[in-house]
Amino acid sequence: ALPQIRCTSSSSSSSSSSSLLKDSTFVPPSNNWPACRKDQSSSRTSLSSPSSSSSIHTNHFSTATNNNDTSSSSSSSPFPHLRPPNIKDVHIFQKIMNYRPGSVITTLGKQEGIEDEDEDILKRYNVDWTHRYQGNSSLLLRPQTTNELSQILSHCHKNYIGIVPQGGNTSLVGGSTPISNTEIILSLEKFNTIHSFDTDNGIVTVDAGVILSTLQSTISERYGYLIPIDIGSKGSCQIGGNVSTNAGGQYYYRFGSLHANVLGVEVVTAKGDVLDLMSCNRKDNTGYDLKHLFIGAEGTLGIITKIALSCPKLPTSRQAALLQCPTFNDVRTTLSTAKEKLGEILSAFEFMDYEVVSLVQQQQQQTVLIEEEDDESDNPFFLLVETQGSNSEHDREKMEQFLECCMEDGFVVNGILAQDGKQMEEM
Question: pTM (2 decimals)?
């Protein structure tokens, strides 16, 4: 058995690497197979032949090839042990998904009498969010059930076809972009059901393809709970991609990583086996906690299809302040002061430099702290501090005391305290 899964269920900062699975055990590559090495500049695992040290990590992952010519030798591919999918594979995938419209998008059927889907759709899945990395896959699959996904992975595993799992495709490092036409794009966007919410324990059971912002609004508006992750790409990224990449976000300080909040997962391995690790027990010390192998594994050990996530109660009081500090040592001192003065209500402490804030202001065409006459050398560090609690008057008093202390001691020289929810969201 050879590597089948290469990549990730994409998130805001995902990467990729090769999966080496044989009957659910790790098999080290022999001298005849490509060796893995990490490209530190992009956090992406590149592959190189033992006889060549050149990296294949470029803006265009592979040179243009004829997508209809599936008989071409795979020796020129960065994955010489994989073969491109052909029209027979397309027929099998269509049958697996009951010939459901939109489940198979391909350019392989132009000469075989199969109706060709909109080529623009395939192009959209072949490029990352930054448009810096361009893939070359000729086949996109959009399964809707775990059983369909299991059959697809089983077929690809037996026939040496590479797979690139793709979530919201919000990767900034090309992690969910196919490298060559030997790889199939496998989108999880049809796994988009919020199955249940346990109001007694605050646990949501959700499919991996649910958009993060959709999950956030549903849980907060219907049940009064908070999803313990919030990132900038929440309008496009999927919760499965967040878990697969162990995404952080601004609530990391308060609630910890997704390792601390995911209670269970359902996973399909490269071989097609379905692992039901969907325990919803908060306290479970019965043996190995295998779900942690797949959180942050970026799709290399298996594709996450369902998640059980612990959710804290939605706070009734929130405060936010955007602060400006003269030195990085002042930033560190401000953090220490925030821990002391804000204590249990401190929920987010985000650091930004002058260049980042200036760029945001240019894009949003509004002025926040930085005026035109300001110089980068003056107070170049910025902090976003947020609190969450249950008593507005008490929390605001603690925030004001914190700000007063920091400004009196000179750690903070400028700042804005949000007056309402609208200003807080703008921050």
Answer: 0.76
